[in-house]
Amino acid sequence: MKHDHPGGAAHPKPKASATLSGKLTKLGIRGDAELVLHLPLRYEDETRLTPLGEIHDAPPGEPVQVEVEVMSTEVAFRPRRQLVSRVRDAHHGDGMLVVRLLNFYPSQQKQYEPGARLRLFGEVREGYFGLEMVHPRAVAVGDDTPLPTALTPVYPTTAGLSQTALRRLIERALQRVELVDTLPARILAAQQLMPFADAIRMLHQPPAALSAEALEARNHAAWRRIRFNELLAQQLSLRRAY
What we know:
12 strands, 31% helix, 25% strand, three-stranded antiparallel β-sheet, seven-stranded mixed β-sheet, alpha+beta, elongated, single chain
């Protein structure tokens, strides 16, 4: 069976489990072909760290990534039950930040045990206890855990299917799928279009040097190739109907 994308094609492999398949079906995804064509809405930059001493300068509403050591953690009950951790910069030992989890599980309480080293990604704001992050994305790291080398894609998803799980499924599909460019080389050259496979992989795994803003504004050559394919599909459909 072959699933085509106008100007490109992908050869899918077997489907996932029934429960997962149901969630994917809600997104219009039935196999590898649809997974690789499920493109990001936006991107997050987890390729760099912001020192805690500089988080005051972060633009309002813009998330930052910090690497911290947990100094203390407690369950507080005012103004409501919550997990409150105080952390400091893991590299410089200075700067302090409060992390608050308003709804938390025992596993998260364990994650924030004193001495733990975490990478936190989220927005910084003034709160009850000073500068704080509320429900940041937290990942346990070691002294030499490398930073990602590509921007982190954020996909349209559905209830019960996390971004992490969806990214993993798409990464595996990209490894398995065969992306075939059905446009002749002369058309690619004449229209100055990227190869289909390059465009798809660029959008899923953009290098850190690319601007997340440009990608989200869909001004990049990879998005231009996708728009060309969409226009081609529309024109072919109209021609077939005619």
